[in-house]
């Protein structure tokens, strides 16, 4: 992949997507400083790109450049205030800076926004009990005129065990 990206970058050296993936490859090769520099450049060009900010923050954190990592993660939250990964990193960063109240808040927000580790288990029980709702697990789907009617389930009737 690295040689293909190098070839693409020879043809179009400013292509942001190719430079982004090149940075990820550099990081995978242990060339963290180069990856961070490249991600920082892309971040300057596309400051509202969540994934660039996330990868920049993680790379800087791995390098021990904590202050810069904090800035990247805070910028990420400026784009997506519900990004659980940013809070996960910011909690120990704030703690290391003696900002305990902010560390606790970041940790609480991480727990709030992260994926619930048992949600799939609960959902599986519900959809097994109510197969007429199973297609709702599919992110993109349509309801045709001939779709089976589904009752609205509330209270104890919505329990996964019923």
Characterization of the model:
The protein is built from eight helices and no strands. The chain is mainly alpha-helical and 162 residues long. Helix 1 packs antiparallel against helix 2 and helix 3 packs antiparallel against helix 4. The model has no long low-confidence stretch (mean pLDDT 89).
Give the helix/strand layout:
Layout: H1 2-11, H2 16-28, H3 32-45, H4 50-63, H5 66-79, H6 84-96, H7 100-113, H8 119-129
Helix pairs in contact: 1-2, 2-3, 3-4, 4-5, 5-6, 6-7
In which range does the helix fraction lie?
55-70%
Which percent band covers the strand fraction? under 5%
The description of the largest β-sheet is: none
Question: Cα distance, first to last residue?
Answer: 50 Å
Q: What is the global morphology?
A: flat
Strand segment tally: 0
Structural class: mainly alpha
Average the pLDDT over all residues and give the rounded result: 89
Q: What Rg is obtained from the alpha carbons, in whole angstroms? A: 22 Å
* SS summary, helix count: 8
Order of helices and strands: HHHHHHHH
């Amino acid at each position: 992949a690295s040689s293909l990206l190098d070839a693409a970058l020879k043809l179009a050296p400013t292509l942001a997507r190719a430079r982004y993936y090149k940075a990820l490859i550099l990081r995978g090769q242990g060339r963290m400083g180069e990856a961070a520099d490249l991600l920082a450049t892309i971040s300057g060009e596309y400051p509202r790109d969540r994934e660039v900010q996330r990868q920049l923050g993680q790379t800087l954190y791995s390098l021990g450049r904590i202050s810069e990592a904090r800035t990247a993660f805070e910028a990420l939250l400026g784009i997506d205030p519900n990004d659980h990964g940013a809070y996960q990193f910011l909690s120990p960063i704030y703690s290391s800076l003696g900002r305990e109240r902010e560390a606790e808040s970041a940790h609480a927000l991480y727990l709030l926004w992260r994926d619930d580790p048992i949600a799939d288990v609960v959902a599986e029980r519900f959809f097994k009990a109510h197969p007429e709702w199973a297609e709702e697990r599919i992110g993109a789907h349509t309801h045709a005129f001939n779709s089976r009617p589904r009752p609205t389930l509330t209270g104890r009737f919505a329990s996964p065990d019923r």
